[in-house]
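ugh ok fine here u go
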Amino acid sequence: MRKSVMKIYVAGHRGMVGSAIVRRLEEMGAGEIVTRTHAQLDLVDQRAVANFFEEERPDVVYLAAAKVGGIHANNTYPAEFIYQNMMMEANIIHQAYLHGVRKLLFLGSSCIYPKLAEQPMAESALLTGVLEATNEPYALAKIAGIKLCESYNRQYGVDYRSVMPTNLYGMNDNFHPENSHVIPAMLRRFHEAKLAGAAEVVVWGTGTPMREFLHVDDMAAASVHVMNLDRDIYSQHTEPMLSHINVGTGLDCTIRELAETMAEVVGFAGALVFDSSKPDGTPRKLMDVSRLADLGWRAQISLREGLAETYAWFLSNQDNYRD
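structure:
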């Protein structure tokens, strides 16, 4: 017999997104939150995951665990990115079904969409074109996660949902100089340049590509919102084979504008130099978030506000950030 208090398992609770979801759930007093570190539970290990679900019997699962990284990491470790992510997703989703979990939320990534998808990218763009080559293994793993949820819904009648975030940033991000995403990498570079009294900071590319960024606390709020929607309402805004929901701000900025804002937030007074010999990547990546807006949620944290909060956290946790 289940306890009267809902038991919620957050997979990946020490990561940027998972930790934000835990904070959100705790603020709401949502129920008993169950977590495991990687040392306690290897999510790639099928038997270990099965034993965990048998022991804990969660009611709800947030699947935020993933192996993540920037372009360099994706290019260097493609086998690890596809294998580890697919194994984690398959193990958790299958064991959730076997152990009676009726509601699960899978967190994906905007990289699931084709490299040349029409902008802004709507959910219907999935599987309509070629993926970006640099992160194709990771993207394929995330697409597999979406299709796992859809397939279990169709065959077993469970309620497994998927959300696809745009570029995320915030506390507990990875600030590694090579393996991190654009905002943490840029923040660290500007911070170190300020400390060194550097005359300039070099930014890759022309500065013209446009990107969308979402603070991780907004992502957590959106995730809980989508999870808590009535099943009929959620179904009215999705389709059986197109059941994922984009999560973003619906606004983007150029890399130049991002760098200029970052310099102001960090307090770097030197020059910005754009190295046009370096690749720009995709000209624009913006999410169509109209489906989520119709479901009653919009982002609340502005980019400048979010960058300031992230920098304040970075300054308070320099001894702990990953390098």
